[in-house]
Structure formats: structure tokens, C-alpha cells
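Practice problem: predict the structure.
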Amino acid sequence: MKPISLKSALAVSIKAARAAGKAMRDNWHKSKQVNSAIAHDIKLELDVRCQALIEKVLAQAFPGVPVLGEEGNSGDLKADYRWVIDPIDGTVNYFFDMPHAATSIALQHCGKSVVGVIYDPFTDELWTTTQGQPTRLNGKIVRVSDRSNIEDCVIAMGFSKSQDNLEKSLPHLIRISRRAKKIRIMGSAALELVYVASGRLDAYIERTINLWDVAAGSLLVENAGGEFYTIPAPNGKLRMCADNGKLRQKLQLGSLFK
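Answer:
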């Protein structure tokens, strides 16, 4: 496959994210069809519809590029280029009418994110970046915070509710909450990542997370001067910490990431 223009990929990603965001806003207070509901998660028909909408916009500009998405994959995911999509990150928030959810779109080249777009349709905030360029929020360059003392920091955590995750995550949550200025559990990995990139949060930790949750946000954090650290977890998932580049060692993640 010939090289893809990152400028063009960014423009079409923005178009796709805004289209999905409009669908989220238009359906926010309407009755929502639940495709599946497990103990700690909800899948909506709108998730599927938003991913289809995003894929249609992307395919019109870049036909044949495979997609790895929360709502399904298409094409050869080992190809040089692929899209990584989370159509509604924060579906449980959205289902309960809480306006904290976003659309996340990344373009990856050889497994590395080179375009990142995250759109919050409720605040009309759009975070964008491409490889080697700064992170922008509605066109304005943003940077991570410079706070280095945990006692001054606001730190987000997230964790799935499996027995193993609870046993590992809750002690760490208690330990960090005793030191940090505040702890937040907000329910949208994409927004937590761009909040780190924007200096609203100082760090965000998650013991088990999916690639589509972080593919765009990881690049946005790094291009805002932060650090995105991951190690592999079982079943193709990741353990991750995103921070301003000053906190990860102080957060003592060893026991959490085992």
C-alpha cells in the first residue's frame, strides 16, 4: 500500500469523528436499544451504527484500509496501515445520560499510531495530532502539566471488574488516594487520556485495557509532552499508565501491573 498523507488522514478522521459525535448528541436523550448487557458493561445498537458511520466516511477517502474496532474488524489487520476505532468510548456513561463519552479514531502505520483524533460531542472539544506534530484542542496547542509531587496531582484510574483486577487495583487505588490531591474514576479512557494531554489530569492508570481505547489517546499524550507506558496483558489487552512524564516511577505500579 502506498504511503497515506497524514494531513489527509487527519482531515477525514475529524470529519468521521464529528459525524459520529452528531449521532451521539442526536440520540442522547432518546430511548436506546441495548444489544447486550453484562455485569459491568453495556453494548448499544448506536455503538454499531456509529462505527459503521465512521467506517463509511473513512472508506470513501481511503478505500481498502483495514479497521480494528470495538464493534468489529475488517480487512487484513497486519497490513501496513489500519484504522483503530472506538465509536463511543464511555458507553455506560452515555446510556445513563451522563455527558462524558467520546469518539476515538487513530490511524496506525506498522502498529504505531500516526494520527489521533478524539471528539467530545457534549463539550464540542476536538483533540487532534499527527506524528511529529503538537497536540491541539480545537486548534490550540495543549501540553501536559508540570506537576511532579503526587500530593499536588489529580490522578484517574479505571479497572474492569474481574476478580483479578479488583484484587490488584483496589489496594493501589487506596494507596494512591491517600497521597494524591484527588482521584477520579470517570469511565472514558479516551477522555482521561486527552485530559492528561491537556494538563487537566496528571496521570491515568488502567490495569487492563483494549487497544481501541488508547490508540488515538496515546499519541495525543506523547505529542503533548507526556509519557504513555504499556506492557502486554492477557488476551491481547494492555496495562497502561499515561502521565506528564514526571510521575510514573513515583506511582509504584509494579504490584498493580503483575
